[in-house]
Amino acid sequence: MRNFAIAIDGPAGSGKSTIAKKLSEILDIDYIDTGAMYRAFALKILKCNININDISSLNKVLNSTIIDFKDNHIFLDGQIVDEEIRKNEISAGASDVAKIFQVREKLVEIQRNISKDRSIIMDGRDIGSVVLPEAEFKFYITASIEERGKRRYKELIQKGYNVNLNEIIKEIEERDRADSTRKIAPLIKCKDAVEVDTTNKTIDEVISEMLKIIDRRANNVII
What we know:
Number of domains: 1
Organism: Proteiniborus ethanoligenes
Low-confidence stretches: none
Shape: globular
Distance between the termini: 5 Å
Family: Belongs to the cytidylate kinase family. Type 1 subfamily.
Number of strands: 8
Main location: cytoplasm
Enzyme class: transferase
Helix content: 40-55%
Number of helices: 9
InterPro entries: Cytidylate_kin, Cytidylate_kinase_dom, P-loop_NTPase
Order of helices and strands: EHEHHEEEHHEHEHHEH
Largest sheet: 5 strands, parallel
CATH superfamily: P-loop containing nucleotide triphosphate hydrolases
CATH topology: Rossmann fold
């Protein structure tokens, strides 16, 4: 069986990262969280106190930054940053960073190189449209804004953060608007992507639905 790629796109809070991780475990293939890469670089910029409009300084930081994945952990310059990159201020920063051409060009290059010699599953905003347009399987994961807000709220509360549900929903609405209207690689649903609405569905129900789709098409695309 030859290597294959699964591209999963969708808005913030749709559950795509959780779904991608579980699918990768079931299919025994590598999972690459591309959104985490942008979050990691946003964290680096914050730590270095760099103005994102200062392209010269931004390029220097970008060229000296090492982002890697090992055992489902993301490393920034050799340090695990799984928790740090999930803070609200980093989420907002990641959306701003993703608009910068130089940053996207560099990270997309890394993402494509990762996919060359192994089967992978990637999730993000533009995997099927930009990063892996030739992916054998493409999914667009979505859910209502209210559902996504509740999930994010629950996640942050469980981690001990003091947050407000209405504010989180508002942030998600703003994030959707920013991601969908940005000039560089906006969030879109590819014509050949299968849409999966996760509202009021358990993770297991969504996984089962996607595995059936993959199984039906597998003989045609990866044998």
